[in-house]
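Quick question: what would this complex look like in 3D?
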Amino acid sequence: MIELTKNEELILLSIWKLKDNAYGVTVRQNYKSITGKELNYGSMYNTLYLLVRRGFVVNNESDPEAKKGGRRKILYTLTPEGIRALKEAQKIQKLAWDNIPDLSIEES
Amino acid sequence: MKGRIPPKLPGWIIRRLSVYEDMFAVTSDLEEEYIYLYGEKGKFRSGMWYWKQTFRILSSYFFNSITWKIFMLNNYLKIALRNIKNNKSYSFLNIFCLTLGIACCTIIMIWMENELSFDSYHKNSDQLYRVTNNWGWVTPQPLASELKNNYPEIVNSSRFITRGGRLIKYEDKKFYEDNFVLSDPELFQMLDFYFTKDKPDEIFRNINDIILTESMSKKYFGNADPVGKVLNIDNKYDFIVTGVLKDFSQNTMIKGDFFISFEFIKYYDAHVKPDDWGYNSYNTLIQVQKNALVTEIGKKLSALSKLHFPDSNNDYIMQNIRDLRLYDIKGKRTGMNNIYIFSALAFLVLLMACINFMYLSTAGSFKRAKEICMRKTVGAKKTELLVQFLGESFLLSLFAFVSALFIVKLSLPLFSELAGINMTFDLVNIRLISGLFGIILFTALLSGSYPALYLSSFQPVSILKGTANIFSKHKLSRRLLVLSQFSLSTLLVICLAVIYLQLDFMKNRDLGYNSRNVIFFRMKGGLNKRYKSFKNELKQNPVFFSITAASSRTGADTHFGTRGWSINGKEPEKDNVITGLKVDSDYFNTMGMKIVLGNDFKNLPQNTAVNSVVLNETAVKTVGINSPVGKRFTFWNRDYTIAGIVKDYNYDSLHESIIPVVIVFAPEECRSVVVRITGEKDISEALAFLKSKWEEYVPGFPFEYYFLDESVENMYGTEKKTITLLSYFTFLIISISSLGLFGLSLFTVSQRTKEIGIRKVLGATVFKISGLLTTEFVMLMLMSYFIAWPSAYFIMNRWLLNFAYKTDIGTTIYVLSSCATLFIALAAVSYHTVKAARANPVNSLKYE
């Protein structure tokens, strides 16, 4: 079983969703749009670093773009292992939520 | 977009520390978002945001990396300890040698710290100077007040002088005290003297005020408060104690046990007028203004000397009080030389230990090759391996340091005695602690750097395949290291031998007089006035061969040197100093000196003798006349007739060449009695007799006597100390090198076990195999002589320049010393080689 923390899972999802445009700024934006919270750069890079080390993500240098004034830009893509990890996380999610009584009833 | 330039500093920090920058291009991400934020929230808040994010990135990065490093460190430590455990003998060798090296350095550092800190504890130590004449440490009385009153740069000054041998009495306690100082009260303002209780309102208000130290107060008054008590000095003067000083720390040159006012000098030196510029017998200490130009003041002092002594090359020199310990008055290094020599030697001992570590760890590296290659294949970077091995050498140094501390603690009393100072080892001195830390770091880096570079450069592929012969690689550098050790050991042994020979030469040299069975002592308590009857009483006893007296110990008193002399009424062409000596009639036969021409005083009638002088041969040369006997010689403003010539004798140590001496017959002015005893077996009887007569004549004054031969030997105390210390160092360096050789031979032999086995099977003898294994070392040894001999020759020639009379160094000493070191080296190597050569080849060839 591959274990992913919530942050790792959300970052992997963001990268997958953003496809060819996944880099620092966009991943952070996406994270915010899902959770409504700011993800600070520190914990984002640390998480990314671990994901790269575990072989879920590869980081590639993109061609310099006009938008960034010719600066470097590094794009992230998921590896097959990364995709498998996400699938597994999804499976666990599903299994965990199956056969759970409706939460709204308890709340009221 | 213009003006939206993000702050430069955080980006620079990130790039500098390369925090994820290569992986994720951190700064460009941040910049992009910053530019966006700038439009929304303005410059200030976006700037704040940028800084905050940078801080977050840095802190989480470091936290993260440290956690991983700790994991790795744990592994390194485990492996290092395991290595130490698995190679016990080799680790022990390394740690032992490093321990010796570090202990040596630590002791020398404690000693140096003590020597270099002399008199630096005074608040104004940088402003305090001792003024001396250019020929000796003494100055005339009026100099101090002249300097203070007429030179604005000099803010304070004091005269002082230490007068030894004062008899001090309180009730029934009486002792002779040597550290009896007369000084102006200003001395107490310039130097930091600490009083135990209150400082007296005014120091030396009355001429009979006395200040003493705490331990002296204990000695005379016990635990009672000494202030106000009366001490009697020399059975003559009564002094009232006005203050008690704390005992002096040992690192000061200006100290005393008793202090009285300098005004009192008028009773001691009644014949000297206080404004006499010609009578040099006192010390002068001055305090200059802060930031005063010392060279300018020096020039003014020279001008002052010229004013008083227009025709001589007399000069006044200033010397900072911090330099009194280690430099002589002309600024020549005296003690400082020892500091350089011994710190260099201690460093060499440590260096030898480090060299052992270097070649033993590279020679033993084949044992660790697999581990290194595994680490490399798994992904260790070269820098990580470097860190690992440096860490290991640091660990070993740390072990060595801890055991060195024990050695230092145990051996410090021994070295205190040797150095003649009380050395203490307490870790409160910041400079000492940082020095020790420096030693550990230095040891770790020096000994670890080469093995670390060497080990981390292994190529995993070739080693794991088993094709590379690690041991024979880097053979050259290993040989160079061994060579350096050999050279140093041989060099030191040669130096030691030469110093020993020189010392022996000086001991056995014909000094021109016979120092055996001669006793001398100073006349005290007015004995000199009753010398004649004292002498006659001694004469009754046959144990005394002869009795005489002189104005100084061995026949020259530099205090009585003068330029004012003439021969046959003619002034000398050259301005040469001739030294005077006053003696009693039997002086020459008592001392065993030879009269080569003319008459001895004892052969002359009394009234002729008082107008006669005897010159030594050097004095005759200085005077420059052919037949001197019978000529008129004017000296000390008196006319004498030259009665005879005495053979040259070495009155001083052999460092100095013989100076011209004029010997005058003046028994009343002699201060020391010199006695020759008939035979060695009579010495105790003679001493007992002397003591009883002394008690009879000057009761209450302790009888202190010296043997002439002992005092002659004491002149070479420095050389003796040097030879003792040097032999310790040589012993250490040789044993460390031998231990290293011992370890290295183990590795060499173990690499060639199979070869030895095959050779033996094919019929090689034990002798041949031992020869094969030791050839390398012998070759290295022979090569080392090419380095050791010239450097020893150079160093020892320089050293011998210190002596006016030197021994000849033949080549034998080089050959013998070299043979000795060769023998030691062979002994160190032979254990393993002979063992390997004698081993049964079956055992070495059995395993494949």
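Answer marked as accepted. Chain A is about 55% helix and 10% strand.
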